[in-house]
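Hi U.,

Before I forget, here's the chain from the pilot set. I'm dumping it here mostly so it's searchable later in email.
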Amino acid sequence: MTTPNGTTITAADVHHVAFPNPPFGRRGYDTDIVDNFLDSLEAKFADPANPELAWLTPQAIREISFRKPPLGMRGYRASGVDAFLEACAAQLEQHHP
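Structure:
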C-alpha cells in the first residue's frame, strides 16, 4: 500500500514508529494510550480484512483523540502522532474506501 506522497506504510512501520517528545513545559499525548492504539493499527496493516478490526476505519483514525499524560510526564508530541495517523488513514482510504 502507498500513501498519496508515494511512501508505503507497513505493519512493521507502525510497530517501529517513534515520536519525539513535546518541548519542555508542554504535554503531548499519553504514551500508553497512543501505544495501545498503535497495536490495533499495526494489526490492521498486517491484516486489513480482519473482521475484528472493521471498526478501525480511516474516519475512526482521523477522529481518535488522546488524553494528556499524567502531570510531570511529557508524552509524545501531538503533531508527530497526528501526522503519522493521517498518513495511515490516507493509505487505508486508498485501498479500503
